[in-house]
Amino acid sequence: MLLKLFNLLPLLITTLLTTTLQSTTATPTDPTINNFSKRSASTVLNAVTTISTQLITLNNTVTAYPGGIEGSLTALQIQAETIQLEVDLKTAIIAAKQSANFTDEESLSVAQAFVALEPTIASTLTTLVSRKKDFDDGLLGVASLSFLVEWDLQQLSFLSSQLGKAVLEKLSATYAALAPLVLDQISAAFASAIAAYK
Length: 198
Ligand SMILES: *[C@@H]1O[C@H](CO)[C@@H](O)[C@H](O)[C@H]1NC(C)=O
Ligand SMILES: *[C@@H]1O[C@H](CO)[C@@H](O)[C@H](O)[C@H]1NC(C)=O
Ligand SMILES: *[C@@H]1O[C@H](CO)[C@@H](O)[C@H](O)[C@H]1NC(C)=O
Fold this sequence. Notes:
Bound molecules: 2-acetamido-2-deoxy-beta-D-glucopyranose
Pfam family, one: HsbA
Protein name: Antigenic cell wall galactomanno protein
InterPro entries: Cell_wall_mannoprotein_1
Mean pLDDT: 86
Organism: Aspergillus saccharolyticus JOP 1030-1
Keywords: Signal
């Protein structure tokens, strides 16, 4: 069993790397999200809900990660779920950019969605940081997965700040003035997680 998994390692590493590289070069061109006329606050809200759900999924998988050789398949799953999260963030960025300016009421809902999202992000990052030792010798000491996690965190951090900017531009004045409070909390959470992986 162990030997069999060991033979799979090169494939595993290649798959992890390829999927990561693809995720950074891919542009979201899902034809189902190309209906420009339907962009609105509700599209953004749905996209934020999707991000939140995906964060919880990822958090659960990382929590269940056993590390070591027996964790190899879970490591692949973590990578796949991270890539999906990046796709979800890109979808939300597009939705926000293509939306009309939010009304006061819409701005309130979107602001509330971000306030609710922040602890979910922070919690998932805390879980990722708490498992760093397991990622360090992720593949039987053959390869560390931590460089990959750090890379993912950089991507997620960048995409989150892009989403924050895109949403900020659509908020009405009152909420636009308050939004940096929560957006700064989100980027601080990423900064400290990335620092833990350096
Ligand atoms: C795009 O949105 C318009 C207006 O809501 C709708 O009539 C149309 O069917 C949509 N097109 C697609 C491809 O979903
Ligand atoms: C949207 O809001 C920004 C300010 O946040 C303003 O500069 C811009 O003109 C507005 N766009 C429309 C179409 O009202
Ligand atoms: C993430 O997982 C931890 C356990 O590792 C749990 O305590 C926390 O509530 C979870 N957070 C979310 C947002 O599901």
